[in-house]
Amino acid sequence: MKHIIIIISSILFSTLFYNQQIGLNISIFSVLTVIILAVSNTHKFKNKTTLLYIFIYLLTAALVFIQYTNLSILANIIAFLTLIGSVTESKSSIYVQWYNGIYTSIVGYFHRKFIKQNIKDEDETQKKAIDILHITKLIGIPLIFIIGFIVLYKNGNPIFNDIISKINFDFINLQWLLFTVLGYYLFSNIFNPVQVDSATNIDLQTGNTLRKSETFSIEALKKEKQLGTILLLLLNILIVFYLATDIISLSTINSTHASVLSSQVHSGIYTLIASIIIAIIIILYFFRGDLNFFKDNRILKNLSYTWIFLNAVLVILIATKNYNYIASFGLTYKRIGVNIYLFLTLIGLITTLLKVSKVKNFWFLMRINTRIAFGFLILFSIIDWDYSITKYNINHAPLLDLNYLINLSDNNAVLLNEYRESTNLNTEQNNRIFTKHLDYIKTVNNRNWQEYTYSNLKLKVTAKKTISNAYSR
Amino acid sequence: MHILGNIGKSSLLAASIFWIIILSDTFNWDMVPYIFISLIPIYVICALTILITICPIFWFLENDNYNKQRIFKTYFPIYTTLMFSLCAYSIYKISTDIVVLSFFISAYITTVQSWVWFTKEKVEIK
User: Do A106 and B24 touch (CB under 8 A)?
Assistant: First the structure.
């Protein structure tokens, strides 16, 4: 039964993906994956976490069909790995689920082979090994000799050579068959997901809360506290000074030059990256163990909270600079990236604050931050960025960089073409947009059913409207 | 450890995968002699890969308390993940040409199967 399901799935896999681009096939493959997992792991599908990951996986599959962006494809792949990892062990951390997901997808078949050989009786194993070896010999040895002799005889007899040369295996699509084998391998890997025992067990045994060690020196803790207090105090003074100068420079420079704003944002970002990483490392170092339980750690804790707060102010200042930059020159991927980075940094600071105040360990930070990052990846994949950037820039940017928009993916082709029709552009830009739109329509219309995306449906509706309008006239 | 036997089986497996993928793209009777000749370099590459990357793990770690099964469970996931990443990255970096593709696919599958053969040799759970 298992093999029949996998064989049917692998044939479907080839039908969906062999010589095809991404599109509807990803959505069908996702549904197929969920069905296969449900068939082989029914009891695990009652778990709420697994059900949530199924929903996320199917959502990302739908997003690939609707948005057709690289981010949605990436989100779908990561959601696939998370789901597989969750079926393996739903209670483990998300990064362990990713690892289990990757491990299952690339080598699950071989891992199960190893497990099976340990379970089976030695006699049975030997018996089967002999059978397989015999079959291999029966097929392999005559095949090798026949091929060898054909090559020898070919040179000895021209008629034989002619006949052999006419043998044509073109009717067999060996590549399609190999692709089906790949599908078989993938589906047999995920049919019964496996786990990396060492990583999963350690993860399950490790909690989120720090524990007081049985023996510690109060003298050593006092020294460490002194060092931490002095260091954090000086760093706080330094960052206050930096922030004050930054606020002054922000209020005095009223430049609208792209280069000035760009350098302001980018130098700020580099400062921020270094500052936040050092901040988190220092805080993690001082609050790694028994100092958390030391009675006189109040000052050190308050200094840490202050430093986290001041770093958050630094984030807000850079966000303000980036906002000015966007308001003057419109959206680009880099500018959006800066905003996303700032937002994630702010979340990183909040989780570090939680770690210190709730006496959590390093793994708590890892778990919560990776979970949040995964959540945001899914959230951001909902947005069609190329379309959004184009729409925002056309409607709001005082200085429109049309060449940047033309170089984006085809997702903005229709929007740009509408803009071209409503505005007087120079000949070069006009031609580039026209060609881009034409290529987009050609690409969409030439797609096979496996490659269909939502844009195919939209184009069909537009074409129907155009025809009906023409008839009504 | 039956190293020679393992290398022999691995070479045959690697050669089979390598040539099946290449022949699926183009088949020509004149290529047949090369298939046989290629067994020599394939054997050398397999021997070096197995001797350098797999055998030391068993040589250094296997003892009375740490048997092959435990070594497999602990180090096989790390090895395969690294091997897969290396092969995928090499294909991405070098080219998706059929020869490169078949070389790295056969390298990945052969090393993974070689691990299974090594742990299959003697089944004694301690």
Answer: no
